[in-house]
Amino acid sequence: MAQPAAAASAEEEVLQVFTDFTRAMNTGDFELVASLYRHSPETSQFLDATGLPFLYQGWEAIENNLKPFFVYLKSSTGSNSFSMHHPQAVMLGDNGAVITGYHNWVSTDQATKAVTQTQIRVTLAVQKINGKWLITHEHASAFPVK
After folding, report:
1. In the Cβ-directed half-sphere of 104, how many Cα atoms lie within 13 Å?
2. Which pTM was predicted?
3. What is the DSSP letter of 41?
4. Residue 50 confidence (pLDDT)
């Protein structure tokens, strides 16, 4: 008789959020990324990947910020590839955790074949709500350019 599959640890469940986040960016899947966030006025996002830091407060503001980026990913004539590196989960109890890691974003312009690489530090605060880990805060900032 086969052994039943071991249940995922809390850390593995939490890190799956980062894996799914990366997959959503690689496929331009807005519905997937939206399913990872807590849809609440308390949810927040701080982005400093473009040199213009901005805080988005509430799911509606975050959604309005994310949608154009995912439209770009889906409609881009070039290629975009995201890889995740060094993901770590720090458990803050049974229902809270912080995920840290970084994304390497490689974008290739189809016309010029120019390649741009951006490394983005990512921190996600997640909370287990109704049995599902959801992003309650996201912080993303580009690595300094050397």
Report:
1. 6
2. 0.88
3. T
4. 62
